[in-house]
Amino acid sequence: MALTRREFLYALPAGASLVACATTTRDAARATTYRESVTGNTASKEGTVLVCMPDTSQTRQVWTGLSDDLGKHYRLVALHADARESGAAIAEGMRRHRPSGIVLMNNPTVAAYRALQKSSPQTVFPPAVIVMTSFLDGHSQHLLAATGISYEVPLITVVTNLRKLIVGPIERVGVVLRPALSGFVQRQAALARREQITVFEEQVDPRPNASDLKRALRKLKQHVDALWILNDDRMLTPQLIMEGWIPGLNERPWSPAIVGAASLVSPGQSFGTFAVLPDHTALGSQAANLLFDIADNGWVLPQDSVIQPPLSTTTTVDLVQAKERFELRADALQKVDRVLE
Amino acid sequence: MSTEAQKLLVFLHVAVKQRAFQGELQSALPGIDVTAVGRIGDFDRSLQDHPDAVLTLPLVLAARGIGATLHGRRQGAQDEVYALVGADSMPDPAKIQSVGALDLLGRDGTDSFVNRVLGARPKVERVTKVEDLLPLLQMQRVDAILLAARFVTELKKASRLSLFQRDLATKVELPAAATLSAGGPQILGALSRLPAQLSAAMGVDEWR
Predict the structure, then answer these.
(1) Whose CB has fewer CB within 10 Å in chain A, the N or C terminal residue?
(2) pTM, whole model, 2 decimals?
(3) DSSP assigned state of A140
């Protein structure tokens, strides 16, 4: 990679008590930019962890959780992974640092790494931990030596949180879904049964329209205590939200609607009653624990390694909707991270 | 000339959100700038802001070389019972392979703490919030969880799992406060007069 300019910056990034060294390298020939920041225990002989991450507020929170835990033991390299240049950047990061372990944040980064693995069949890749990737269960099967934490908050966790907020038995949960997600919902339902939660499914067409959606909602709302709205892009198009979800949810009988994206909870919109999302800093800590397990195993992925669900969540409530339609527990607001009114 | 408010840094795990806990402390301590954190990493970073006093567990103070001045007590005792809680059967500290615990001191420090309290060395899964212990049992990630016994009632309210509680012989010191600057004693004076309900949220009924 030809160098045209190199800059050194000294900063104190979140999660590190040591001075970090940041490097930006531009390859004029390929019009790509390589950006990294080295921090943690830079003198460590225990290993280097390469963290491949786009720059967003959520990834920075994950980085805080990771680096707080790992920084004392390992040298950490935060590698900026822009969707277009991720593959080249990861390859360069691996060449420079020979990491003992890798963390991959988000779908495009994982896709780039997968392509890199496919293009280099003779290369021995270090174990990887994947976070912030949708429906990870399927993805990890296509990567060598990878494990991770799924990004979808388990239904059992979602309902446990809702029960702390709203009076009344929350035992029957309805979900409208495309057939492609039936397997995912069935696995969630099996786990949720441990907390006496029963899931009722209404499947719609793989390419549903607003009428299908409203019909499914009307049917479910007759006999469920809450609705769980999946983070399925094809079910959450602007048109389906405006013409299907919002009218359907705002008809009586009302059911609390649990969503998985903060943007879907808004007093002005009256869509989600309650959002439950992964706590990104805690996600970083959970990923750090996975890396410790891998390191304890000689930097080899343990044989019993499985994709973990996220343990820790943050919750947001549309207080206007919740107060208007449901009965809140006396201490409900002390159990919620964000209250919107 | 304006006087800067004195600063209190709090690192305690409580049954409510840190946001709510900080708000209640702030209301009860007018004139004092309160920061409540739930992660040891955030505590260490906030110490660099030079608070006038800190409130946390004595074992955290000791790990940072800080001596406690004001001790929390409950029913006259300076320490409290911890419990091992399992789902579906009574957990045995000598037999469990894995335990969930609140992260008090990072990986090594928390492992040592757990080993001391249990008298055994299972694998420790650390979480940063009290409410994150239940998912470890729900998803069968651990054989049991370790927590202050006063949190178990809340745990049982939040879950329909069949939970079994074993109280442990080794007790853990209740929260304590330390002064870090000349402004500290005034903060500790205010802490000793906290409303009973707020102190109870920390497991304390008296400060001395």
Answers:
(1) C
(2) 0.91
(3) G
